[in-house]
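Practice problem: predict the structure.
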Amino acid sequence: MGGTELLWTGFMLGLVGSAHCAGMCGPIAIALPGAEQRGISLVTGRLLYNGGRVMTYMAMGAVLGFFGMGMSLAGYQQFLSVATGVLILAFALLPGRYFNKIMHASPAMFQRTFGTLFGKLMKNGSHGSLLGIGLLNGLLPCGFVYMGLIGALGMGSVAGSAAYMGLFGLGTVPVMLGMSLITGLFGPGFRTKMQKALPYAAAAVGILLILRGLSLGIPFISPVLGGGMEMGAEACH
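Answer:
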């Protein structure tokens, strides 16, 4: 089983952590070009922006999926699931000030690489430019996205990792779409509460990945996986 039983945790992590997106990328969502548009045109443009972010997340997940697939084919699927779970759990258990520092990565390299193109797209109100902004936005340095990618790595396949990050991105859409359509819809109080819940959601995802890797025979949570720890145990006899 390629890890699809835990794909839903990607959506859960994205949904709970979307308050972090609101804080980091909210200003971009609010400042998107085309705000003078109305009705279907406005909604379409904002959906394209969010679709661009999700597409970039899926592409990054697919790239990591090649590594995860290699680990699984080599018989380390269980080890990979446990290792990624432990790493996410370690992030979640960090003291608040360190956790927040990791979540807010510096965008300096992004600005040097894509700053000019990003600026040109922001001045263009076309739907194509909004898709492009979303595609680039997905590349912004972000500890929250990196946490999602760690979880995607544990899926152990290209398709599974891409789907995990797709669901992760979809989980962030409700808040980000709401912010881009209605300024101030999600106020500081809401974002603060959701940000406080993020470590707990991350811890839950980490624990589920660890349980999956332990191959305890629990349907949908810890199914029996082939390879990895079981193979290592057999080799000792």
